[in-house]
Write a structure and sequence with these properties.
about 80 residues; alpha+beta; Conserved Hypothetical Protein Mth637, Chain: A; single chain; about 35% strand; 5 strands
Length: about 80
C-alpha cells in the first residue's frame, strides 16, 4: 500500500518527493469529476507496469491524501521513493 499526497493541476505528472509521511505526486489533470484520480491511477499503472485495473484507490477519493494498493506488480512500491 502507498500513502500519497496528490497535487492536481500541475505542469506535469511526476513524483515530487516526501510530504509528511506520504509521497507527493503532481498530476496535470484538474480535480474535477475524478479526473485527477484517473490520472493518478494511470500514472501508477505505468510506473508499476500493471494494468489500471490492478491499481485500486482504497481511501481518499475526494481528498489530496490517498491510500493506493497495487496488485501483482513485479516492482516494489519503494521504487517510487527511489525515483525521487
Amino acid at each position: 500500500m502507498l500513502t500519497l499526497h496528490l497535487q492536481p493541476g500541475a505542469r506535469a505528472t511526476q513524483v515530487v518527493g516526501p510530504y509528511a509521511d506520504a509521497l507527493k505526486i503532481q498530476v496535470q489533470s484538474a480535480p474535477i469529476e475524478g479526473q485527477a484520480n484517473a490520472s493518478l491511477v494511470k500514472f501508477l499503472a505505468q510506473a508499476f507496469q500493471v494494468p489500471t485495473s490492478q491499481v485500486v484507490l482504497k481511501q481518499g477519493s475526494r481528498s489530496r491524501r490517498k491510500v493506493v494498493e497495487i496488485y501483482a506488480s513485479a516492482i516494489v512500491p519503494d521504487a517510487l521513493w527511489a525515483s525521487v
